[in-house]
Amino acid sequence: MQKCHFLTRRRALLAGAASMGAAGLAGALATGTGRRTAAPAAPAAGAQAARSPLRPSAYRLQPLTGYGPPRAVPGRTPVRSAPLLRMTGRGNTMVLTFDDGPDPRYTPDILDTLAAYDVRAMFFVCGETAAENRDLLARMADEGHVVGNHTWSHPLLTSLRRSRIRAEMERTCEVIEKAYGEPPQWFRAPYGAWNRATFQLGADLGMEPLAWTVDTLDWTTPGTRTIVERVENGAAPGVVVLSHDAGGERSQSVRALRDYLPQLLDSGYHIGVPRRPYV
Ligand SMILES: [Zn+2]
């Protein structure tokens, strides 16, 4: 049993942030590619079909005071013109991210592995699946992981009107805040398809755009060994790794994590989650 299991959700989140500070990282992320990095793939990863209609959201129309942790303050988040691709700062820290979930078939196994090695990761969830698996978001919070917004129904945002993009983001923020306990501070566009509206709306909702450095392409089910090799070959300080815990058959992703996580740790990497520079 991991120690964080006994912490309150809020304390676990704070503990996670503190551990990043102890690792000597500013928690900043950087745009642009650097040494040993790869550009995000073109629209491809983790396709999911919309399964339910998007209802109007009252998110942000609620009062900003009340019980619970403080909300991110709108207006404090910069509007970027490109997503963040990697972490900057000292230390051999890498970030593991899992998209499209949660899925009760795979997400608990991934959480178990992360807990076994006492490391924190990021989960970019879809509101549609998050709403059906609120218990898994609560577990992510209890165990110190970071939950980001990956839209409600995983559409290609660049093909949508602004109002629809906003609805996809807001509704998902609402579900995350209720189930996780805090509003998301990070946003990732499905298929890595960003445009000006996604940057503006994400910033308006207090979220930083985070892409990735290394794409495992695990959604193509290339084989567990191949996924492991892609992570190991891409490993470098500051690298953000993209995998999926939902959106299809993900047992290879689950098995690969059990293999590459201890190897990364044995190689001297610290696995952590970024802190927001603007909160
Ligand atoms: Zn996705």
From TrEMBL:
Keyword check for Signal: yes
Key word Cell membrane present: no
Residues annotated as domain NodB homology: 92-272
Keyword terms of this UniProt record: Hydrolase, Metal-binding, Signal
Region (Disordered) residue spans: 59-78
Signal sequence, renumbered to the chain: 1-28
PROSITE patterns: NODB, TAT
Protein name as it appears in the record: Polysaccharide deacetylase family protein
